[in-house]
Design brief:
Nuclear Transport Factor 2, Chain: A, 2 helices, 6 strands
């Protein structure tokens, strides 16, 4: 799962910096198998840091990261694997 072609929506492209996109894809790559088809990322500001809480339901998974950021983003993103491709999208684009 998540080892196929990767796509992102226009919303992600315009709102999420490339470095942060790459970090989120890396979070999915590094998590243990099995992996849920739906990965959820809650982004928020934690002072001068970007807080990223990565979670999924089946199996239950939760990890929080803090990374330095000049402009932390508050947004919810999904990465969804439908078997043919993986797509990163903003929650409001779902």
């Amino acid at each position: 799962m998540f080892d196929n072609n990767r796509y992102l929506t226009c919303g992600v492209d315009s709102l999420i910096p490339m470095e942060l996109q790459m970090f989120l894809w890396g979070c999915v790559e590094r998590m243990p198998a099995p992996k849920d088809y739906l990965q959820v990322f809650e982004l928020s500001a934690a002072g001068p840091m970007q807080s990223i809480t990565h979670s999924s339901e089946e199996p239950e998974y939760r990890m929080t990261y803090l990374v330095p950021s000049d402009a932390p983003i508050t947004e919810t993103l999904y990465i969804i694997d439908d078997g043919d491709h993986s797509t990163m999208l903003l929650a409001n684009e779902y």
